[in-house]
Amino acid sequence: MKTIKVCIKRSEGFKEYMVETEEGMSVMDVLERIYDEQDNTLAFFRHEACHQEACGKCLVRVNGKVCLACGHEAVEDELVLEPWSDRVVRDLVCEQP
Amino acid sequence: MRTITTDVLIVGSGGAGLRAAAAAADGGAKALIVCKGKVNRSGSTLLAGANVSADVMCDGRSMASMGIGIGDENDSKEKFYKDIILEGVWLNDRGLVKQYVENAPTVIREIVENNKNLHPKGDDREIGIPGSTIIDTYYKMIRERNVDVVEDSSLLDLLKASDGTVAGALFLDLIHGEIFAVNAKATVLATGGMHNCYSFTSGTTGLVGEGQAAAIRAGAEMIDMEMVTFCPGVITHPMKWRGSILPYIIHTNDQFRLKNADGEEFMAKHLPQSAVDLALHSEWNKMLLCYAMHKEVNQEGKGDAYGGVTFDLEFKDEEDEQAFLDHYPFLKTGTCNEMFRYIKDHGGIPVYGAAHYFDGGIFVDPSFATSLEGLFAAGECTGGTFGSNRVSAATTQMLVQGLEAGKSAAAYAAGAELKAFCPVCLEKAEKDALRPFEEGKEDPRKLKKKINEIVSAGAGVVRDEKGMTEALAALEAQDLSAYGVTVDTRAYNRSWMDWLESRSMLTCSKAILASSLMRKESRGVFIRSDYFYTDNDEYLVSTRYKDGRVRLEPVDQADVPVPAGRLGYIENIEDVIKRLSYS
Question: For the domain bounded by A2-94, which CATH number is listed?
């Protein structure tokens, strides 16, 4: 268990969350935890997500690098999460390619 | 409201939806797919066989004719047909099984011919290929046929014409929040399973039974909704892999062990030796392993920190391990390799039984027409094909049924005219979808969790009268109007999606529980602790759910002899297995 700082680029600007994480959590799991426990206004891709790096739809920019939210393990002490493209719909959700 | 018109509307883009769309186009219809995710990367199909090895099946003789070095000349369609009915413990709709057996070689040939570089492994009746390969095959097929596609859109309701015919459907563009309609001469539902009614599932996040729920609201008849298959080797932890069925895919007779929190093997405690053998050496392992796991965790209280048990692999020596890896080469790279290393390094990986496949669903005839005029359905959202237990492949099911449903829908559309929506239906469907903006304030995610808890407790691996009655009452007590959006925008509004998904889950869950209560016996995947026997005198029947009521319909017992009387649940399975052609 450790507490990490997660900065998320929302449509209105950056917002910071402190999140308790455990080993084996993905960025997707971290986002779920934030939505569940802290902020149920956050938008991130999850409506038809495979969670298994197969559908390729949960793209997000993690610490500057575009990757799949479900495939990136949240091992860092600080995460900066931004939309993966500049065609933002809301918060981390972008127009689908 | 924006309205798209087409001849045939297909809802869903897994194997069933894609195959239906291609068949509808071949039948001369203008076809449109509307799917919840990405057309070639959503639904159950993608995760079939953990996207490394999904079984696709036909009879061994037809398989031998494919020229891929697999098959059995001595097998026949007749044997395959009878085996499927035995596997389903005599509840299968014979017409649907015949259609499955007859068309299975066609779809396998399509896959083999479209993937020249594929060297599928398999045995007499099956080949194992990644789910994505199946999807890619049929995605190519719909592109070649210029099928129109609308992605990231969720089914809200079926829409009827004034004469009661289904004339299309209402959808929500989840990304932008726009509600739009599709007006069609025929509609095919191919929306997959109801996985997310349960808290632990092997499905994608979007599988909530939207097609089934919309069909129920429109007054369609459902069949065998109580039949839910649980998969025993699904990862519960680490969180990032939760829901993966990889352990199940690699469970083999010799190396795999299931252990409780104390590190003890427990199968023999809950099953007689003959059933343990069946669980370890036959395709019937899903229900038997889940039953033993359930007993160990819930009765003995020996579950692990994640509410399940440990899946471990034990190798005799390095040679044994190498042979294992050669047998499952996908374990050598990528995430599968990480999972394999985890099992080795941690003395196993936590697993439990997850809601995995729905044997019941929308009632269809062998042309895949539902009980509603203008509405067809195919794949996992339908019921009846596998009776009380699917052993044969769901991938084959989705493809053969999609093929037939698309054909039937095109033929229907050719003789039909486009009918205007009944204005009252359209207005009501839109108003219903917007309720969470007008009504309650509670986060609908809480409702989803409640439904999950109720259904998992009341309609899990082992059920009883008290638990199911309480669960149904608890579902009836849930009030959608207490819940509403947490943010007042229509664009990618998670709480709106959660509300809509809760609505589907509630509808489906009530049907599952109400149907379960009507079956006072155990059969196939349906296990009751208070009726732990299979009753062929009273329950060679399918449950039919319609408008909130359940009736029992005798299943025509053609072609496969069935013994009279009652037999203990396990004894009956043993007896059925003896009757199979492959046992």
Answer: 3.10.20.30
**pTM of the predicted protein model:** 0.97
CB-CB contact of B173 with B35 (8 Å): no
Alpha-carbon gap, residue B555 to B93, rounded angstroms: 7
What count of residues does chain A have?
97
Nearest C-alpha neighbor of B420 from the set B185, B235, B231, B140: B185
| Block mean pLDDT (10 aa), chain B, length 583 | 98 97 98 95 84 89 91 96 97 98 96 84 86 94 98 98 98 98 98 97 94 98 98 95 94 87 94 85 86 96 96 95 94 94 96 97 98 98 98 95 98 98 97 97 97 98 98 98 97 97 98 98 98 98 98 97 96 93 83
B549 CB neighbour count, 10 Å cutoff: 9
Spell out which residues of chain B touch residue A52, defining contact as CB-CB under 8 Å: 47, 50-51, 241, 243-244, 335
Whether A96 contacts chain B with CB within 8 A: yes
Fold of B1-227+359-583: FAD/NAD(P)-binding domain (3.50.50)
Cβ contact, residue pair A50, B175, below 8 Å: no
Query: pLDDT (tens digit, 9 = 90+) per residue, B85-104?
Result: 999 999 999 999 999 999 99
Fold classification of B229-356 is: Flavocytochrome C3; Chain A, domain 1 (3.90.700)
Phi/psi at B257 (nearest 5 deg)?
-135, 145
Interface contact A35-B494, CB threshold 8 A: yes
CA distance B545 to B548: 7
What's the distance, CA B92 to chain centroid? Answer: 16
CB atoms within 10 A of CB B276: 18
Q: Which two tokens stand for residue B427?
A: 């207005």
Q: Please count the residues of chain B.
A: 583
